[in-house]
Design a protein that fits this description.
By secondary structure, the chain is α/β, with parallel strands linked by helices. The chain folds into three domains: 146 residues, Rossmann fold (3-Layer(aba) Sandwich); 147 residues, HypD, alpha/beta domain 2 (Rossmann fold, 3-Layer(aba) Sandwich), CATH 3.40.50.11740; 52 residues, no CATH class. The strands form four sheets. It has a five-stranded parallel sheet, with helices on both faces. A four-stranded parallel sheet has the order 4-3-5-6, sandwiched between helices. Strands 10-13 form a two-stranded antiparallel ribbon. The longest helix is centred in the middle third of the chain and has 16 residues. The termini are far apart. The relative contact order is 0.16. The structure holds iron/sulfur cluster. The site of iron/sulfur cluster has 14 residues, from helix 16 and helix 17.
């Protein structure tokens, strides 16, 4: 796609055009505002950054979903990373995770300051070089992410086996988007009209580039909820909202693809094959905020278990303990806003995060802190 065409997705004239279309269509809606959950933290940031929630005030109420891999990582897994690092391995992971406080209020960065060997990597494949350069030490890659980053971890494990790199292993925390959406739709809170009732979903763009739009068809049919996969520019999100409202006005619920410049119905088959070669479904996985979600994460297949750090290391973990005043769990479920938290913007800030939603660049608390300064002012 040319730069010129990409610019159109930020063009204020296009924004006005789509807003007018939404306004006209909204007049046909008897019950406003409608509740739309944007699953992905990237969309939450776009909505805040471009003031889309304000542009659509009275028409759409955005509910922020759990689509931020760092935010949904349960405390027990953060503790696992910290305990592994304390055992003397070279613990490698992506940036944001290193700042999430564990049960003892210390993050991986804190224990690095105390002498642990914790390293931030930009690509998981960097750990191959680290392992080659440190033949006498164990290197552990702490893999997190939705379907977008899973194929790279699969490539890492395959390559480690091909190259015979035996001092490298992976803790697999990769989670699955459709299972989380299904869990949200099945949750009593979501069915209890008056608390949270989700009318439709804006589906994740990057995840869907890998898995395609097909896996969402079930939700649209079974739960009668429109799902529109969207890009991240302001015009993308507004077009997705327009497509959702159009479905509601016409009394249909189906999957539509606004992000067709990157997403297809079938997704990226090659990436899917890498994932299927190396990983299989876990029976369940604990998500921060959502609890135990059946078949919602991946584990390393037996064939590759030599590179599975959960098989290689025995770790005694502390009893997981969240900060008592942090309501990340509710924020992740979409039943509370960051501003409902007593600590938001005062005690808890991006430079002193007390919960994962403030740490992550995709977290809802971080988005509110960055783009809703006026709300912080009213709290002070
Ligand atoms: S503001 Fe901080 S303490 Fe409050 S919910 Fe968000 S991350 Fe947790």
């Amino acid at each position: 796609m040319s730069i010129h065409k990409l610019k159109l997705f930020k063009d204020p004239r296009e924004v006005s055009k789509v807003l007018k279309l939404i306004d006209n269509l909204a007049k046909k809606m008897p019950n406003l505002p409608i509740n739309i959950m944007e699953f992905c933290g990237g969309h939450t940031h776009s909505i805040m950054k471009y003031g889309i929630d304000q542009l659509l005030e009275g028409i759409v109420n955005f509910i922020h979903g759990p689509g931020c891999p760092v935010c949904v990582m349960p405390m027990s897994r953060v503790d696992l990373a910290i305990e592994l690092a304390k055992q003397g391995v070279i613990l490698c992971s992506y940036g944001d995770l290193l700042r999430v406080p564990g049960s003892r209020r210390k993050s991986l960065l804190d224990i690095r300051a105390e002498g642990a060997d914790v390293r931030m990597v930009y690509s998981c494949l960097d750990t191959i070089e680290i392992a080659k350069n440190n033949p006498g030490r164990q290197v552990v890659f702490f893999a997190i992410g939705f379907e977008t980053t899973t194929p790279q971890t699969a490539v890492l494990i395959k390559r480690a086996r091909e190259l015979g790199i035996n001092n490298l292993s992976v803790v697999c925390n990769h989670v699955i988007t459709p299972a989380a959406i299904q869990h949200i739709l099945n949750a009593p809170e979501m069915r209890d009209i008056g608390k949270v009732s989700i009318d439709a979903f804006i589906g994740p763009g990057h995840v869907s580039a890998i898995i395609g739009t097909r896996p969402y068809e079930y939700f649209a049919e079974e739960f009668l909820k429109p799902v529109v996969i969207s890009g991240f520019e302001p015009v993308d999100v507004l077009q997705a909202v327009y497509m959702i409202i159009k479905q509601i006005v016409n009394g249909v619920a189906k999957v539509e693809n606004q992000y067709s410049r990157f997403v297809t119905r079938e997704g990226n088959k090659k990436a899917q094959k890498f994932v299927a070669d190396v990983f299989e479904l876990r029976k369940g996985f604990e998500w921060r905020g959502l609890g135990w979600v059946p078949y919602s994460a991946l584990k390393i297949k037996k064939e590759y278990q030599y590179w599975d750090a959960e098989k290689r290391f025995v770790v005694a973990l502390p009893e997981p303990r969240e900060h008592p005043a942090c309501i990340c769990g509710k924020v992740i479920r979409g039943v509370a806003l960051p501003t409902d938290c007593k600590l938001f913007g005062t005690v808890c800030t991006p430079s002193n995060p007390l919960g994962s939603c403030m740490v992550s660049s995709e977290g809802a608390c971080a988005a509110y802190f960055k783009y809703k300064k006026d709300l912080i002012a009213t709290k002070l």
